UniProtKB/TrEMBL annotation:
Belongs to the alkB family. Its main location: cytoplasm. This is tRNA (carboxymethyluridine(34)-5-O)-methyltransferase ALKBH8. Catalyzes the methylation of 5-carboxymethyl uridine to 5-methylcarboxymethyl uridine at the wobble position of the anticodon loop in tRNA via its methyltransferase domain. Catalyzes the last step in the formation of 5-methylcarboxymethyl uridine at the wobble position of the anticodon loop in target tRNA. Has a preference for tRNA(Arg) and tRNA(Glu), and does not bind tRNA(Lys). It comes from the Eukaryota. Gene3D superfamilies: 2.60.120.1520, 3.30.70.330, Vaccinia Virus protein VP39. GO terms for cellular component: cytosol; nucleoplasm. GO terms for biological process: DNA damage response; tRNA methylation; tRNA wobble uridine modification.
Length: 708
């Protein structure tokens, strides 16, 4: 009997074996007939290759949906379809997708979650859903708003439940007034701006990161969100603004007549970092008029709550009280905003109603922002974020580092308990080993005994099969995950590892030591690694760096988009899914810059922020540079799994419910981010080790130590 080589014209794929790994409906749809291949030859082989490729992409979509969203696809026909690559996160707007899916039958509902690369369609019958399944699978469409191509991959899902969404309240003190000016008044105000004028006063007109801006009354300085009160600009405010300001005073929108105006022009794709206008610089009311186009402005509370607010064209935004003093406001740089598709709500907060969201292409927006310069210190009721009261606040703030006991309590509350709660979700985001760590492990001699101290979900324990690796972590739930992967791991504290002295050929400590809250405890963690090593053994340490921009290169942490172009046909795990994961575990904000903020324990009102009660540490805004070495970093436990690994589906939770609050909890992890040279200096205090190598790796300071 002759041997048939795989890949030769005579070879036939084992369809029966293929079906073992496929859901029945998928296998039926894409089953390869041996008889057909025998009769049609090479042409059919090419067609089958195309079908196989489509099948692989469809299966990848199923796995991605399950891994990231907890959405389980089924093999039998249902009325519901999940359309991968057909979501707002891919740039697909509701109107285009609705027209497409309606060609296959009556659509009872089209759900498009914000920022997600998928949609869910409910048809009136299973027959219509099956028709859409056959028609849309592998269909390439051109996006109306960008002319890019995406390929859709469709799977069946069981019944999807969703509740009517209760509108999200605006931040306290925030007010929106629609159509404050007429279209004619709008045109006159826009025409009055002379962007080409050669100002006498330097800096009165200048470009800010390619955004055009003009100042009147006083120059608004973006480096400190303040003005120089001793250097007023000549000419005061433009006369064309007088009628507008008189109307605002008469209607009671403001109490003080503004004496400072900033005009900003935002082209599509431009934005402004989240910020709070300095308390001591301006009075309570700050108002902003949107001309030329509308836009979505993002507001964020220190406890992590966010509200997206639609500012329609010709509307006035009024910020007073809490919204002015406590919440940051900013505009995310993007070319599309997620807004309501229906006409029922075109102003105010954008409610995450998955049945009524679409994309809106931004136009050129010009904002007139008016402020009143303050002449006395601010005495607001938000001292934790008030620069006028900050000195007093710092004197009263307790220190976490007064004793070993308090340091231990801090770590228990903001490290140990947090990782127990977020373990499953955390593990789902930690699956890609870092190349230089892999290189270190693969260069170790065969048979080396290696301890991964703080192993997390064990992603480095199986890198090199020639090593004997053991892991340990403070989190029982993370150690359980290691066990599920058949790795050897146990629970212990990194300051006291129950392993004999000099018993390891190598150790790794990846993203662990920065969780210790005193210099003494951080040094003790290094000393414990040295104790485990035999003479000549090596340890690799990674810690988070204060310098997230090094040698003029931003770290991956600061980069908002990590996808390369030309992969539109695939489920875009680097852009759409990457964005989702970033929002989940690194903050959920698209902010590009923001000062760290301090939480006031007396202001904790919602259940989401209970993890930061009694904390005086600044809460870091993710995806931004660090401004303090000791910070709390938020982790948003949304759309993932609870600590027991059970799937949680947002679409099944009514807004305002206790379950939804639990679903979207915000946890805060303590970090001490290291300055350049700090880790090396600590290591040099130990006589038993020497630094063999130190380097910077994508936002982390790293050292390789050798035991003497």
């Amino acid at each position: 009997m002759g041997v048939v080589v795989k890949g030769s014209p005579e070879w036939r794929p084992p369809a029966r074996n293929l079906e073992r790994f496929l859901p029945s409906a998928v296998a039926l749809s894409f089953r390869i007939s041996s008889a057909e291949m025998d009769s049609t030859g090479q042409n059919n082989l090419k067609r089958n290759k195309s079908e196989k490729k489509l099948l692989r992409k469809q299966i990848k979509a199923r796995n991605t949906l399950m891994r990231h969203e907890g959405i389980e696809c089924v093999s039998h026909t249902t009325q519901n379809l999940v359309v991968a690559n057909g979501g707002l996160g891919n740039g697909v707007n509701r109107h285009q997708l609705l027209r497409l899916v309606e060609e296959c039958g009556l659509v009872e509902a089209l759900l498009m979650p914000p920022n997600k690369p998928y949609s869910i369609v409910k048809y009136g019958s299973t027959e219509e859903a099956k028709k859409a399944y056959d028609t849309l699978n592998g269909k390439e469409i051109t996006l109306e708003d960008s002319n890019q191509n995406v390929t859709l991959y469709v799977n069946f899902v069981e019944k999807v439940h969703w509740e009517d969404i209760i509108p999200i309240s605006l931040p306290p003190g925030l007010m929106m007034i629609e159509e404050l000016v007429s279209p004619e008044e709008e045109q006159k105000m826009l025409e009055s701006i002379d962007w080409t004028e050669n100002e006498v006063i330097q800096n009165a007109q200048k470009s800010l990161k390619h955004r055009r801006v003009k100042h009147f009354g006083y120059e608004f300085r973006y480096d400190n969100n303040n003005v120089d009160k001793d250097k007023p600009l000549p000419g005061g405010l433009p006369e064309i603004c007088s009628t507008l300001l008189e109307k605002c005073l008469k209607q009671g929108y403001i109490k003080h007549k503004p004496d400072q105006l900033t005009i900003n022009q935002y082209e599509p794709g431009q934005g402004i970092p989240p910020h709070i206008d300095t308390h001591s610089a301006f009075e309570d009311e700050i108002i902003s008029l949107s001309l030329g186009a509308g836009i979505v402005m993002d507001f964020k509370h220190p406890d992590g709550r966010t509200v997206a607010v639609m500012l329609p064209e010709r509307s006035l935004l009024v910020m007073t009280g809490e919204s002015r003093y406590l919440w940051t406001h900013g505009i995310t740089p993007r070319k599309f905003d997620i807004v309501h598709a229906s006409e029922r709500q075109k102003v105010g907060s954008v409610t995450p109603d998955v049945g009524d969201l679409t994309l809106n292409r931004r136009g050129t927006r010009t904002s007139f922002t008016f402020r009143k310069v303050r002449r006395s210190p601010c005495n607001c009721t938000y001292p934790s974020v008030c620069d006028s009261q900050q000195g007093c606040q710092r004197e009263e703030a307790p220190s976490f580092h007064d004793s070993e006991t308090e340091a231990s309590k801090l770590e228990e509350e903001y490290v140990h308990k947090v990782y127990e709660e977020i373990a499953t979700h955390f593990s789902s985001t930690r699956h890609s080993p870092w190349p230089k760590i892999v290189e270190f492990l693969r260069t170790l001699p065969k048979g080396s005994i290696v301890a991964d101290v703080g192993c997390g979900n064990g992603k480095y324990l199986g890198i090199n099969k020639d090593l004997y690796m053991i892991g340990c972590d403070r989190s029982q739930n993370l150690v359980d995950i290691c066990g599920e992967k058949k790795f050897q791991a146990f629970v212990c504290d990194a300051l006291s590892v129950p392993v004999r002295n000099s018993s390891c050929d190598a150790c790794i400590s990846i993203a662990v030591i920065h969780h210790f809250s005193t210099a003494e405890r951080r040094l003790a963690a290094v000393r414990e690694l040295a104790r485990l090593l035999r003479p000549g053994g090596k340890a690799l340490i990674y810690i988070w760096a204060m310098e997230q921009e090094y040698n003029k290169q931003k770290s991956k942490y600061l980069k908002e988009k990590r996808a390369s172009k030309g992969k539109e046909e695939e489920i875009n795990t680097d852009v759409a899914w990457g964005l989702f994961c970033d929002q989940m575990h690194d903050n959920g904000s698209q902010d590009s810059a923001c000062s760290d903020r301090v939480l006031n324990d007396s202001k904790d009102k919602g259940g989401n922020a209970k993890e930061v009660i009694h904390s005086k540490l600044p809460v870091h805004t993710n995806r931004t540079s660090f401004h303090s070495q000791d910070v709390l970093v938020p982790w948003h436990l949304k759309g993932g799994t609870n600590k027991k690994g059970e799937c949680v589906k947002a679409l099944q939770l009514p807004a305002g419910s206790k379950e939804l609050q639990e679903f979207s909890r915000v946890f805060h992890r303590y970090y001490h981010v290291f300055c350049e040279g700090e880790l090396e200096a600590a290591c040099k205090t130990l006589d038993c080790i020497r630094i063999q190598k130190s380097y910077y790796d994508q936002g982390n300071w790293c050292v390789v130590l050798e035991k003497q």
